[in-house]
Design goal:
The structure is a single chain. By secondary structure, the protein is mainly alpha-helical. It has 2 domains: 2-31; 62-269, MetI-like fold. Helices cover 77% and strands 0% of the residues. The protein is globular, with a radius of gyration of 23 Å.
C-alpha cells in the first residue's frame, strides 16, 4: 500500500511539474491566435476566432523569411563541420590507445566549461583581424569550435562500444583506416550521431549571445536575433504578432526533437558500461 501511495505521489508531482513547464508555452501558442483586444481583455481565454494572419504578419513584418534562411545555412554548415571534425577526433581517441588520450579529453572538457560571455570579445577581435566579421563562415567557425568539445566527448564513448575485433578483422583483410572509419565505425554509431545532432541543433538554432554580438547587418541575422530585434522594433506593441513570431522560431526545434527524442537516453547512457 505504501509503495502504491508513493508511486501515485511521484506521478502527481511529475504531472504538476509538467503542467508548470508547459503552461507558458501553451499560453504563448494560444495567445498567438488572438486579436490584440482579446489578449488585453481576456488573456486566459481561448480565441473566439483563430487569427492565422498573425503568423503571416510576423513572417512579413519581422522579415522572418530572410532570418529563417540564415538560420538554416548557419546551423546546417556548423553541424556539418562540427560532426565531421568531432567524429574523426573521437575515432582517433577511442581507436588508438595512448597516454595522451585522457589528457586530450580533459582539455576538450575544459573548453566546454568556458561560457560564451567569457570569450565573446576575443572572438570579435580575432574575426575582425581575419576579415570574417558579419559572415557565414565566421559565425559557423565559432559555432563549430564551441560545439566540438561536447560532440567529441559523446562520440568517443559511442566509438568505444564498437567491438575492437571488427577493426582487427578488417585490417587483416586489407581495409585501410579511412575505410574502417567510414564503412565500419560510422554505421555502428548512428544513434550517437543522431544524439549529438539533436543537442547541437537545438544549441545552434536557438543560440543568441554569439549571434547577437557577431552579426551586425540585418540581412545576416538568425531567427533568435531577428525575433529580438523585431520585438523591440516593428512588433514592439503588437504582442500577438510577436507571440506568433516566437512560435515560428520554436517550430523547427520541436520537430527535430520529436524525430530524434528516442536517441536522448542512448546519448546520456553512452559509455556508462564501457568507457
Amino acid at each position: 500500500m505504501k509503495k502504491i501511495i508513493g508511486r501515485m505521489l511521484i506521478i502527481l508531482f511529475l504531472l504538476v511539474l509538467t503542467l508548470l513547464t508547459l503552461a507558458p508555452l501553451i499560453w504563448t501558442v494560444i495567445s498567438s491566435f488572438k486579436t490584440a483586444g482579446e489578449l488585453m481583455l481576456r488573456p486566459w481565454s481561448m480565441p473566439a476566432t483563430p487569427q492565422f494572419k498573425n503568423y503571416a504578419d510576423a513572417w512579413r513584418m519581422g522579415n522572418f523569411g530572410t532570418y529563417f534562411m540564415n538560420s538554416i545555412i548557419i546551423t546546417g554548415f556548423s553541424l556539418l563541420l562540427m560532426i565531421l571534425f568531432s567524429s574523426m577526433a573521437a575515432f582517433g581517441l577511442s581507436h588508438y590507445k595512448t597516454k595522451l588520450n585522457h589528457g586530450a579529453l580533459l582539455y576538450l572538457l575544459f573548453g566546454q566549461m568556458i561560457s560564451a560571455a567569457m570569450v565573446i570579445f576575443p572572438l570579435v577581435i580575432i574575426l575582425q583581424k581575419m576579415n570574417l566579421t558579419d559572415s557565414y563562415l565566421g559565425i559557423c567557425l565559432v559555432y563549430t569550435a564551441g560545439g566540438i568539445p561536447f560532440t567529441v566527448f559523446v562520440l568517443t564513448n559511442f566509438f568505444k562500444t564498437v567491438p575492437q575485433g571488427l577493426f582487427e578483422a578488417a585490417q587483416i583483410d586489407g581495409c585501410s583506416e579511412v575505410k574502417q572509419f567510414v564503412s565500419i565505425a560510422i554505421p555502428l554509431i548512428k544513434s550517437g550521431l543522431a544524439t549529438v545532432f539533436l543537442y547541437q541543433f537545438m544549441w545552434v538554432w536557438n543560440e543568441f549571445t554569439i549571434g547577437f554580438t557577431l552579426i551586425r547587418s540585418s540581412s545576416m541575422r538568425t531567427l533568435p536575433v531577428g525575433l529580438y530585434t523585431s520585438v523591440f522594433g516593428v512588433l514592439q506593441t503588437n504582442y500577438v504578432v510577436a507571440f506568433a513570431g516566437t512560435v515560428i522560431v520554436s517550430i523547427p526545434t520541436v520537430l527535430i526533437y520529436l524525430v530524434f527524442q528516442k536517441y536522448l537516453v542512448k546519448g546520456l547512457l553512452a559509455g556508462s558500461i564501457k568507457a
